[in-house]
Specification:
By secondary structure, the chain is mainly β. The protein is built from five helices and 54 strands.
Length: 779
């Protein structure tokens, strides 16, 4: 045997292109094709000499769909995982070694008698290295067995019997693909009963068995076309809202459509995923219906959905947003899979997402009871916070959040109160029972309140949003046997006046919860104001309580008292007291700027045209003194009192009128003033006309020092002013230590102003009273 002739068999090296097999030297196009019954006629390779190859034998191997040796591709159903293939082999003798008058093979040229006749056949088998694209080779026992190709002297083409094996895809095939199949193979010739291996890989010479031959690699390609599924589900997920707040419930809806044509039998699961701080959280539920990530067994499948049918609301899922302050979004979708892989692949709908907006917290209110807190007196506080857009269910997620209030101040005062729970509410949370011990001293006490320790996060309300509590002694003023009004304008030269709609009456009073009720600032009779009236009840007794009119309300004689206190419609113009006094005077005596004891002034009307005057003294019985200051201020540096009188005919009277924007300044230690004190503003600018009650003559300014102004002042008569500054610090609402519970300023309407001789004037002169009767204190 010529060993060079056997070397052709070792050229069985693998190159895969669409089912073809080619030699490394030379490339041959021998392959199944469309010629009925067999091989393509390639004269250059089959009829001529084997190019560049002295060997007489050539081997061609290829794979095909099982039972279809002439096909290079096949079509399988959607989801197929196993495909049966055949290994086909052909050995032929090159043309130059064949006579031309021999027998023929259908579809190929005439062979003539095959020569040489020494070769009896060929044998081969696959040995190792079995692999396939996206899968594996199974049922390969036939490939691993020895396959024989015995010579037929009637033709130069010898075919082996097809060897079947299986290609197993890693997963059900859902799209067409080219599969590369490769393995190692041994090949030899049988000659005269001896076995000669293909060289290379050899070894050369005769061997006793095919197993002694070396192996060489081969590879093949085949196209597997995958049909479309017999049904195709499409789906969608929607939400009933685009935004939601913690505690609210949203609904997700999932729709399915079978695009046919067959009835779809499937399984499904709905998913929800939350985003905390923008980071996606674990999907809920994490697993598929079996609990381990797999789909159910077939009997757990949903009923079939006919081809072309749709279900607009196949499944509905409710979701309640957690009260997490970092929850920003929640998404949901539906996943589904067919009963078998041949019916389609698992799929899912798009995600329907809802934006989660957090409730907006705000600091609602903070109050104390009593409203005016004084040193040495325990008090309670009420705090409230509000969550805009919070739902009732929101509070169930608070997880221990509690309302708190902390107050700190002078003297080491630092008290924290924590409410032991959170009342459920759709929008706000409040508590009015925080109990605080008595503050040790006066000063500004800082307030901090809010929510602490809740799942929704803390809320802290403090300065400057929450003003401090001014804890200290709270002086107040009283008006007895008379009324008080604010806002009336002063008459100008043309007889008109401009009212002040912002004029207020404000005082310190314990209100209806005091003991007794309405203890503090107030009027025994009525109060009228164009602006607000606060802390100043009417129809009250000097020591608190009601005098009977509007009992228990504190606003029985407050005008107006509905819907809020004050804001009375209008008040008449204040008279031009200066002009009236000068006009009605029988004589006017000039009075120079300076300091005067009123007891030394004779009965009559005095006019100060410029400069300041300083006044004090006792006005004897029967004397009437009126001073009109035209161009300066009046300073009162001592008490102004009336001497005793046995009857109204001898009652004294004093009037001080400061006009043109001058002011009446009452020294800080003056304690008693009788008469009428009138300060009129400048009728052009509207400025001036102030009565102040704590003037410091050492600094020539109104004092703000507590000790400097700690004197009680009582007016017996009337006070009219553009601005009334009540600056005394004497007394407080609550007696504590040396501080008494008495008003700092008291206004008593006394009869000397109208009952003294000559007080009742008219165009016809001085009138006298026939009778004077005291009536109950009502208007």
């Amino acid at each position: 045997m010529n060993k060079a002739k056997i070397k052709l068999f070792l050229t069985v090296l693998a190159v895969a292109t669409a089912g073809s097999f080619m030699f490394a030297k030379p490339a041959s196009a021998l392959n199944p094709n469309d010629i009925p019954g067999g091989m393509r006629s390639d004269i250059s390779n089959y009829d001529g000499p084997c190019p560049g190859m002295p060997e007489k034998y050539a081997l061609y191997t290829w794979i095909s769909p099982s039972g279809q040796p002439t096909q290079t591709s096949l079509t399988v159903p959607y989801g197929t995982q196993d495909v049966n293939l055949d290994l086909n082999q052909l050995v032929f003798v090159c043309r130059q070694y064949v006579n031309t008058n021999g027998a023929s093979y259908p579809g190929l040229p005439q062979d003539g008698t095959v020569s040489p006749t020494a070769y009896n056949g060929s044998i081969s088998k696959a040995t190792s290295g079995f692999s396939a694209t996206n899968g594996s080779l199974q049922n390969i026992g036939g490939l691993q067995s020895q396959n024989s190709i015995f010579r037929n002297n009637g033709t130069r083409y010898w075919f082996s019997n097809p060897v079947q094996f299986t290609y197993h895809a890693n997963s059900p095939m859902t799209s067409s693909q080219v599969v590369i199949v490769s393995f190692n193979q041994k090949f030899a010739n049988i000659f005269g009963g001896g076995i000669a291996c293909a060289v290379p890989p050899g070894p050369s010479g005769y061997v006793g068995s095919l197993d002694n031959c070396n192996e060489g690699g081969v590879g093949f390609a085949i196209t597997i076309n995958v049909n479309s599924p017999q049904w195709s589900l499409s789906s969608n997920a929607t939400a009933n809202r685009g935004t939601m707040f913690p505690g609210e419930t949203a609904t997700f809806n999932y729709s399915l459509r079978n695009n046919g044509p067959d009835t779809a039998s499937f399984q499904y699961v709905t998913r929800v995923q939350e985003y905390i701080g923008g980071v996606p959280q674990p999907i809920n539920p994490v697993s598929r219906p079996n609990g381990d990530g797999s789909w159910p067994v077939p009997n757990a499948f949903e009923p079939g959905l006919p081809g072309g049918a749709s279900v607009s609301s196949y499944s509905v899922r409710s979701y309640t947003a957690l009260a997490n302050p970092n929850l920003t979004r929640v998404c949901s979708w539906i996943e589904y899979a067919p009963r078998s892989s041949s019916n389609g692949a698992p799929d899912s709908s798009r995600q329907a997402c809802i934006t989660v907006s957090q409730p907006v917290p705000s600091c609602a209110s903070f109050t104390t009871n009593p409203t005016v807190v004084e040193p040495g007196v325990p008090f309670t506080a009420a705090a409230s916070v509000t969550y805009q857009n919070a739902q009732a269910a929101f509070w169930t997620y608070q997880s221990g959040g509690r309302l708190f209030t902390t107050i700190t101040g002078p003297g080491g005062y630092n008290v924290d109160r924590l409410y032991p729970g959170v009342p459920p509410s759709a929008s706000d949370i409040s508590y009015s029972g925080f109990a605080f011990p008595a503050p040790p001293t006066s000063g500004l006490y800082t307030v901090t309140y809010g929510i602490r320790g809740g799942a929704i996060g803390n809320i802290t309300c403090t300065a400057p949003l929450v003003p401090p509590i001014p804890i200290g002694y709270h002086p107040y003023f009283r008006v007895d046997a008379g009324d008080v009004s604010a806002g009336a304008g002063f008459t100008k030269a043309d007889g008109t006046c401009t009212a002040s709609t912002a004029a207020q009456i404000r005082g310190s009073n314990k209100g209806s919860s005091g003991s007794p009720a309405f203890l503090g600032a107030g009027a025994q009779l009525g109060a009228l104001a164009l602006g607000a009236i606060s802390g100043f009840p009417t129809s009250t007794n000097e020591g608190g309580g009601s005098s009977g009119v509007g009992a228990g309300t504190g606003s029985g004689l407050t005008f107006a008292n509905t819907p809020s206190l004050g804001s009375f419609g209008s008040l008449p113009c204040m008279r031009d007291y200066a002009t009236e006094a000068l006009t009605n005077a029988s004589t006017i005596s000039p009075l120079a700027a300076g300091s005067y004891n009123l007891g030394t002034l004779a009965d009559g009307t005095y006019q100060v045209t410029s400069g300041d005057v300083t006044l004090r003294g006792n006005i004897p019985q029967g004397r009437k003194v009126t001073i009109v200051v035209m161009g300066g201020n009046a300073i009162i540096d001592g008490d102004i009192t009336y001497g005793g009188y046995p009857s109204l005919s001898s009652a004294p009277q004093f009037k001080l009128i400061v006009t043109n924007g001058g002011n009446i300044k009452i020294k800080n230690d003056v304690t008693e003033l009788h008469g009428a004190y009138i300060a009129l503003p400048n009728t052009t600018t509207g400025l001036g006309g102030t009565v102040s009650t704590c003037y410091d003559t050492t600094t020539n300014t109104d004092s703000t020092d507590y000790n400097t102004c700690n004197y009680k002042l009582t007016f017996y008569g009337a006070v009219v002013a553009n601005t009334l500054l009540l600056e005394r610090t004497f007394g407080s609402l609550t007696a504590s230590g040396s501080t008494v519970r008495e008003p700092a300023e008291t206004f008593n309407n006394t009869p000397e102003l109208w009952a003294a001789p000559g007080s009742n004037t008219s165009s016809t002169g001085v009138q006298t009273y026939d009778s004077i009767i005291s009536l109950p204190p009502v208007l």
